[in-house]
TrEMBL record:
<keyword id="KW-0805">Transcription regulation</keyword>
<keyword id="KW-0833">Ubl conjugation pathway</keyword>
<dbReference type="InterPro" id="IPR018200">
    <property type="entry name" value="USP_CS"/>
</dbReference>
<feature type="domain" description="USP">
    <location>
        <begin position="16"/>
        <end position="350"/>
    </location>
</feature>
<dbReference type="GO" id="GO:0004843">
    <property type="term" value="F:cysteine-type deubiquitinase activity"/>
</dbReference>
<dbReference type="InterPro" id="IPR050185">
    <property type="entry name" value="Ub_carboxyl-term_hydrolase"/>
</dbReference>
<keyword id="KW-0539">Nucleus</keyword>
<keyword id="KW-0645">Protease</keyword>
<keyword id="KW-0804">Transcription</keyword>
<dbReference type="GO" id="GO:0006325">
    <property type="term" value="P:chromatin organization"/>
</dbReference>
<comment type="subunit">
    <text>Interacts with BEND3.</text>
</comment>
<dbReference type="Pfam" id="PF00443">
    <property type="entry name" value="UCH"/>
</dbReference>
<comment type="similarity">
    <text>Belongs to the peptidase C19 family. USP21 subfamily.</text>
</comment>
<keyword id="KW-0010">Activator</keyword>
<keyword id="KW-0156">Chromatin regulator</keyword>
<dbReference type="GO" id="GO:0006508">
    <property type="term" value="P:proteolysis"/>
</dbReference>
<keyword id="KW-0788">Thiol protease</keyword>
Protein backbone atom coordinates (compact mmCIF):
# COMPACT_ATOMS: atom_id res chain seq x y z
CA UNK A 1 0.00 0.00 0.00
CA UNK A 2 1.02 3.57 -0.47
CA UNK A 3 -0.29 7.03 0.25
CA UNK A 4 0.06 10.08 -1.95
CA UNK A 5 2.19 12.98 -0.72
CA UNK A 6 2.33 15.77 -3.27
CA UNK A 7 3.34 14.24 -6.60
CA UNK A 8 4.96 11.12 -5.15
CA UNK A 9 3.89 8.03 -3.24
CA UNK A 10 5.42 6.90 0.04
CA UNK A 11 5.56 3.14 0.62
CA UNK A 12 4.10 1.81 3.84
CA UNK A 13 4.11 -1.96 3.44
CA UNK A 14 7.53 -2.51 1.88
CA UNK A 15 10.73 -1.60 3.74
CA UNK A 16 13.87 -1.04 1.70
CA UNK A 17 17.49 -1.71 2.60
CA UNK A 18 20.69 -0.24 1.15
CA UNK A 19 23.33 -2.24 -0.68
CA UNK A 20 26.81 -2.26 0.83
CA UNK A 21 29.09 -1.10 -1.99
CA UNK A 22 32.38 -1.57 -0.15
CA UNK A 23 32.60 -0.86 3.58
CA UNK A 24 29.67 1.57 3.32
CA UNK A 25 27.70 0.40 6.34
CA UNK A 26 28.43 3.79 7.96
CA UNK A 27 26.74 5.51 5.01
CA UNK A 28 23.80 3.10 4.93
CA UNK A 29 23.04 3.50 8.63
CA UNK A 30 23.13 7.31 8.54
CA UNK A 31 21.09 7.54 5.33
CA UNK A 32 18.40 5.31 6.84
CA UNK A 33 18.24 7.60 9.87
CA UNK A 34 18.05 10.72 7.69
CA UNK A 35 15.42 9.11 5.47
CA UNK A 36 13.22 8.83 8.58
CA UNK A 37 13.63 12.55 9.24
CA UNK A 38 10.22 13.23 7.72
CA UNK A 39 10.58 16.96 7.04
CA UNK A 40 13.89 16.41 5.25
CA UNK A 41 12.59 13.38 3.33
CA UNK A 42 9.50 15.19 2.05
CA UNK A 43 11.58 18.25 1.17
CA UNK A 44 13.89 16.08 -0.94
CA UNK A 45 11.20 13.99 -2.60
CA UNK A 46 9.21 17.06 -3.63
CA UNK A 47 12.49 18.68 -4.81
CA UNK A 48 11.58 21.91 -3.04
CA UNK A 49 15.28 22.69 -2.74
CA UNK A 50 15.37 23.62 -6.44
CA UNK A 51 13.26 26.69 -5.65
CA UNK A 52 14.98 27.38 -2.32
CA UNK A 53 18.62 27.55 -3.34
CA UNK A 54 20.30 30.84 -4.25
CA UNK A 55 23.16 29.51 -6.35
CA UNK A 56 22.75 28.83 -10.08
CA UNK A 57 25.00 25.79 -9.78
CA UNK A 58 23.38 22.38 -10.02
CA UNK A 59 22.92 20.75 -6.57
CA UNK A 60 24.56 17.52 -7.69
CA UNK A 61 24.90 15.89 -4.26
CA UNK A 62 21.39 16.90 -3.19
CA UNK A 63 19.99 15.43 -6.39
CA UNK A 64 21.72 12.10 -5.81
CA UNK A 65 20.75 12.07 -2.12
CA UNK A 66 17.13 12.69 -3.12
CA UNK A 67 17.30 9.82 -5.62
CA UNK A 68 18.40 7.46 -2.85
CA UNK A 69 15.50 8.62 -0.67
CA UNK A 70 13.15 8.15 -3.60
CA UNK A 71 14.41 4.60 -3.97
CA UNK A 72 13.79 3.95 -0.27
CA UNK A 73 10.29 5.44 -0.13
CA UNK A 74 8.63 5.48 -3.53
CA UNK A 75 6.84 2.33 -4.71
CA UNK A 76 8.03 1.11 -8.09
CA UNK A 77 7.38 -2.63 -7.81
CA UNK A 78 11.06 -3.49 -8.23
CA UNK A 79 13.75 -4.73 -5.85
CA UNK A 80 13.67 -3.91 -2.16
CA UNK A 81 17.38 -3.00 -2.02
CA UNK A 82 18.62 0.41 -3.15
CA UNK A 83 22.11 0.92 -4.58
CA UNK A 84 23.71 4.13 -3.18
CA UNK A 85 26.93 3.87 -5.24
CA UNK A 86 26.26 6.92 -7.46
CA UNK A 87 25.42 9.04 -4.41
CA UNK A 88 28.57 7.87 -2.60
CA UNK A 89 30.71 8.56 -5.67
CA UNK A 90 29.39 12.15 -5.88
CA UNK A 91 29.88 12.60 -2.14
CA UNK A 92 33.51 11.47 -2.33
CA UNK A 93 34.12 13.91 -5.18
CA UNK A 94 32.74 16.65 -2.95
CA UNK A 95 34.59 15.50 0.19
CA UNK A 96 37.96 13.92 -0.80
CA UNK A 97 38.56 13.03 2.87
CA UNK A 98 36.30 10.02 2.25
CA UNK A 99 38.16 8.76 -0.81
CA UNK A 100 38.91 5.06 -0.96
CA UNK A 101 36.98 2.13 0.45
CA UNK A 102 38.17 1.99 4.07
CA UNK A 103 35.68 2.05 6.94
CA UNK A 104 34.68 5.57 7.98
CA UNK A 105 33.10 7.07 11.09
CA UNK A 106 29.33 7.48 10.82
CA UNK A 107 29.16 10.68 12.84
CA UNK A 108 31.89 12.31 10.76
CA UNK A 109 30.06 11.26 7.60
CA UNK A 110 26.84 12.81 8.93
CA UNK A 111 28.57 16.12 9.67
CA UNK A 112 30.24 16.32 6.26
CA UNK A 113 27.07 15.28 4.45
CA UNK A 114 24.86 17.87 6.15
CA UNK A 115 27.47 20.56 5.55
CA UNK A 116 27.76 19.80 1.83
CA UNK A 117 23.99 19.55 1.36
CA UNK A 118 23.59 22.88 3.15
CA UNK A 119 26.21 24.50 0.91
CA UNK A 120 24.36 23.40 -2.23
CA UNK A 121 20.92 24.60 -1.10
CA UNK A 122 21.91 27.70 0.89
CA UNK A 123 19.29 30.42 0.43
CA UNK A 124 21.80 33.21 1.05
CA UNK A 125 24.23 34.79 -1.43
CA UNK A 126 27.91 34.08 -1.00
CA UNK A 127 28.77 37.64 0.04
CA UNK A 128 29.51 37.73 3.76
CA UNK A 129 28.15 40.55 5.97
CA UNK A 130 30.63 42.76 7.83
CA UNK A 131 31.14 41.53 11.39
CA UNK A 132 32.68 44.84 12.49
CA UNK A 133 29.54 46.75 11.52
CA UNK A 134 27.38 44.08 13.13
CA UNK A 135 29.24 43.86 16.41
CA UNK A 136 28.31 47.43 17.40
CA UNK A 137 24.70 46.30 17.48
CA UNK A 138 25.25 43.70 20.20
CA UNK A 139 27.33 45.64 22.70
CA UNK A 140 25.73 45.79 26.15
CA UNK A 141 22.80 43.58 25.14
CA UNK A 142 21.09 41.14 27.44
CA UNK A 143 22.11 37.52 26.98
CA UNK A 144 18.94 36.59 25.08
CA UNK A 145 19.27 39.63 22.80
CA UNK A 146 22.93 38.96 22.13
CA UNK A 147 22.22 35.31 21.39
CA UNK A 148 19.40 36.23 19.00
CA UNK A 149 21.60 38.83 17.28
CA UNK A 150 24.35 36.25 16.79
CA UNK A 151 21.78 33.77 15.44
CA UNK A 152 20.50 36.33 12.94
CA UNK A 153 24.07 36.99 11.86
CA UNK A 154 24.45 33.28 11.21
CA UNK A 155 21.26 33.22 9.12
CA UNK A 156 22.49 36.17 7.07
CA UNK A 157 25.09 33.89 5.52
CA UNK A 158 23.87 30.33 6.23
CA UNK A 159 20.17 29.66 5.78
CA UNK A 160 18.84 26.39 4.41
CA UNK A 161 16.49 23.52 5.19
CA UNK A 162 19.43 21.84 6.92
CA UNK A 163 19.74 24.86 9.23
CA UNK A 164 15.97 24.93 9.75
CA UNK A 165 16.00 21.36 11.00
CA UNK A 166 19.36 20.52 12.54
CA UNK A 167 20.98 23.73 13.77
CA UNK A 168 20.91 24.88 17.37
CA UNK A 169 22.93 27.33 19.42
CA UNK A 170 25.29 26.67 22.33
CA UNK A 171 26.15 29.22 24.97
CA UNK A 172 29.58 29.10 26.60
CA UNK A 173 29.67 31.13 29.82
CA UNK A 174 33.03 32.14 31.25
CA UNK A 175 33.28 33.38 34.87
CA UNK A 176 36.45 35.15 36.01
CA UNK A 177 37.51 34.17 39.55
CA UNK A 178 39.33 37.51 40.06
CA UNK A 179 36.76 40.15 39.09
CA UNK A 180 33.64 37.90 38.84
CA UNK A 181 32.99 39.12 35.30
CA UNK A 182 30.80 36.91 33.09
CA UNK A 183 31.35 36.72 29.34
CA UNK A 184 29.38 34.69 26.83
CA UNK A 185 30.09 33.25 23.42
CA UNK A 186 27.55 31.59 21.14
CA UNK A 187 28.25 28.81 18.66
CA UNK A 188 26.03 27.01 16.17
CA UNK A 189 25.87 23.21 16.43
CA UNK A 190 24.31 20.45 14.32
CA UNK A 191 24.89 17.71 16.87
CA UNK A 192 25.73 17.42 20.55
CA UNK A 193 28.80 15.29 21.21
CA UNK A 194 28.36 13.94 24.73
CA UNK A 195 31.02 12.32 26.91
CA UNK A 196 30.18 8.97 28.50
CA UNK A 197 30.93 8.78 32.24
CA UNK A 198 33.28 5.99 33.25
CA UNK A 199 31.28 3.32 35.03
CA UNK A 200 32.34 2.56 38.59
CA UNK A 201 30.63 -0.83 38.74
CA UNK A 202 31.03 -3.58 36.15
CA UNK A 203 27.96 -3.81 33.94
CA UNK A 204 26.46 -0.58 35.25
CA UNK A 205 24.28 1.26 32.75
CA UNK A 206 24.80 4.98 32.31
CA UNK A 207 21.81 7.19 31.56
CA UNK A 208 21.65 9.81 28.84
CA UNK A 209 20.89 12.33 31.58
CA UNK A 210 24.27 11.55 33.17
CA UNK A 211 25.98 12.18 29.83
CA UNK A 212 24.19 15.52 29.51
CA UNK A 213 25.10 16.43 33.10
CA UNK A 214 28.76 15.71 32.39
CA UNK A 215 28.59 17.76 29.16
CA UNK A 216 27.15 20.79 30.93
CA UNK A 217 29.00 20.64 34.25
CA UNK A 218 31.19 23.54 35.28
CA UNK A 219 34.81 23.19 34.18
CA UNK A 220 37.68 24.87 36.01
CA UNK A 221 40.27 26.51 33.76
CA UNK A 222 43.74 27.20 35.08
CA UNK A 223 45.32 30.54 34.26
CA UNK A 224 47.47 29.17 31.42
CA UNK A 225 44.50 27.60 29.60
CA UNK A 226 41.97 30.32 30.30
CA UNK A 227 40.89 32.92 27.70
CA UNK A 228 41.55 36.60 28.31
CA UNK A 229 39.15 38.16 30.79
CA UNK A 230 37.36 41.07 29.09
CA UNK A 231 37.47 43.17 32.26
CA UNK A 232 40.89 42.21 33.70
CA UNK A 233 42.43 42.19 30.22
CA UNK A 234 44.63 39.24 31.18
CA UNK A 235 44.44 35.49 31.65
CA UNK A 236 42.97 34.52 35.01
CA UNK A 237 41.65 31.40 36.67
CA UNK A 238 38.06 30.97 35.55
CA UNK A 239 35.20 28.53 35.19
CA UNK A 240 33.37 27.55 32.00
CA UNK A 241 29.90 26.11 31.55
CA UNK A 242 28.05 25.02 28.42
CA UNK A 243 24.29 25.28 27.95
CA UNK A 244 21.84 25.15 25.05
CA UNK A 245 20.63 28.60 24.08
CA UNK A 246 18.55 27.59 21.07
CA UNK A 247 17.03 24.15 20.60
CA UNK A 248 17.03 22.52 17.15
CA UNK A 249 13.94 20.89 15.66
CA UNK A 250 15.98 17.73 15.04
CA UNK A 251 18.35 16.94 17.89
CA UNK A 252 21.29 14.71 16.94
CA UNK A 253 23.16 13.30 19.94
CA UNK A 254 26.58 11.74 19.39
CA UNK A 255 27.70 9.44 22.20
CA UNK A 256 31.45 9.88 22.17
CA UNK A 257 32.50 6.23 22.44
CA UNK A 258 35.91 6.68 20.82
CA UNK A 259 38.78 8.20 22.79
CA UNK A 260 42.13 9.02 21.22
CA UNK A 261 45.34 8.70 23.19
CA UNK A 262 48.86 9.41 22.00
CA UNK A 263 49.33 6.02 20.39
CA UNK A 264 45.88 4.47 19.92
CA UNK A 265 42.10 4.83 19.79
CA UNK A 266 39.92 3.01 22.31
CA UNK A 267 36.18 2.40 22.36
CA UNK A 268 33.83 2.68 25.33
CA UNK A 269 31.32 -0.18 25.56
CA UNK A 270 29.40 1.28 28.49
CA UNK A 271 25.64 0.76 27.96
CA UNK A 272 23.78 4.09 27.76
CA UNK A 273 20.04 4.09 28.40
CA UNK A 274 17.96 6.79 26.73
CA UNK A 275 14.26 7.72 26.72
CA UNK A 276 12.23 6.89 23.63
CA UNK A 277 9.75 9.65 24.39
CA UNK A 278 9.80 12.87 26.35
CA UNK A 279 13.54 13.57 26.58
CA UNK A 280 13.54 16.90 28.45
CA UNK A 281 16.39 19.27 27.58
CA UNK A 282 14.85 22.17 29.50
CA UNK A 283 17.28 21.80 32.44
CA UNK A 284 20.18 22.33 30.02
CA UNK A 285 18.76 25.46 28.41
CA UNK A 286 18.23 29.10 29.44
CA UNK A 287 17.05 29.77 32.99
CA UNK A 288 13.31 29.15 33.47
CA UNK A 289 12.81 28.01 29.88
CA UNK A 290 10.49 25.20 31.00
CA UNK A 291 10.25 21.69 29.52
CA UNK A 292 11.72 21.11 26.06
CA UNK A 293 10.61 17.64 25.00
CA UNK A 294 11.97 15.39 22.27
CA UNK A 295 10.90 11.98 20.92
CA UNK A 296 13.38 9.45 19.54
CA UNK A 297 12.87 8.28 15.95
CA UNK A 298 16.20 6.76 14.86
CA UNK A 299 19.40 5.25 16.27
CA UNK A 300 22.73 4.54 14.57
CA UNK A 301 24.59 1.68 16.28
CA UNK A 302 28.24 0.65 16.16
CA UNK A 303 29.21 -2.93 17.00
CA UNK A 304 32.65 -4.49 17.15
CA UNK A 305 35.98 -2.84 17.75
CA UNK A 306 37.69 0.31 16.51
CA UNK A 307 39.34 -1.50 13.59
CA UNK A 308 36.69 -4.17 12.94
CA UNK A 309 33.36 -2.43 13.43
CA UNK A 310 29.96 -2.43 11.77
CA UNK A 311 27.16 0.16 11.64
CA UNK A 312 23.43 -0.55 11.67
CA UNK A 313 20.32 1.58 12.21
CA UNK A 314 17.01 1.26 14.02
CA UNK A 315 14.16 3.55 12.93
CA UNK A 316 10.63 4.17 14.13
CA UNK A 317 7.98 3.10 11.63
CA UNK A 318 4.20 3.50 11.72
CA UNK A 319 3.66 0.27 13.67
CA UNK A 320 6.90 -0.11 15.61
CA UNK A 321 10.67 -0.16 15.20
CA UNK A 322 12.64 -1.68 12.32
CA UNK A 323 16.28 -2.76 12.18
CA UNK A 324 18.37 -1.86 9.12
CA UNK A 325 21.54 -3.87 8.48
CA UNK A 326 22.62 -2.80 4.99
CA UNK A 327 20.25 -4.68 2.64
CA UNK A 328 18.63 -6.69 5.45
CA UNK A 329 15.56 -5.24 7.18
CA UNK A 330 13.64 -6.69 10.11
CA UNK A 331 11.68 -5.80 13.21
CA UNK A 332 13.26 -4.92 16.55
CA UNK A 333 11.72 -4.54 20.00
CA UNK A 334 12.00 -1.33 21.99
CA UNK A 335 13.90 -3.21 24.69
CA UNK A 336 16.66 -4.17 22.26
CA UNK A 337 17.19 -0.55 21.27
CA UNK A 338 18.95 -0.06 24.59
CA UNK A 339 22.47 -1.47 24.30
CA UNK A 340 26.16 -0.70 24.51
CA UNK A 341 26.19 -0.18 20.72
CA UNK A 342 24.15 3.04 20.50
CA UNK A 343 26.27 5.71 18.85
CA UNK A 344 24.15 8.48 17.26
CA UNK A 345 20.61 9.26 18.47
CA UNK A 346 18.06 11.20 16.42
CA UNK A 347 15.31 13.06 18.31
CA UNK A 348 12.49 15.27 17.01
CA UNK A 349 11.20 18.27 18.95
CA UNK A 350 7.80 17.51 20.44
CA UNK A 351 7.02 20.62 22.47
CA UNK A 352 8.86 23.73 23.60
CA UNK A 353 7.72 26.79 25.53
CA UNK A 354 10.37 28.99 23.92
CA UNK A 355 9.21 31.05 20.97
CA UNK A 356 11.35 30.24 17.93
CA UNK A 357 12.11 33.19 15.65
Amino acid sequence: SARKRGHFKVCEAVLFGLRNVGNTCFLNAIVQCLSHTRSLRDYCLMRTYLQDKHSNQEPVLMNEFSKVLAGLWECDGGETTVNPSKFYHVFKDSVPYFSGYSQQDAQEFLRFLLDRLHTEINRRPSKRPSFRAFKSLIVSCRISEEAFAMWQRHLDRDDSKIVDLFSGQLRSSLHCSVCSHYSNTFDVFCDLSLPIPKKSDYGRTVTLRECLDLFSQEEKLVQENSPMCERCNRRTESTKRLSIQRFPRILVIHLNRFAMSRYSISKSTVPVSFPLNGLDLGPFGPVDCGPVLYDLYAVCNHSGTVNMGHYTAACREEEGWCYYNDSCVGEITEEKLQSNQSYVLFYELKSCNIVRK
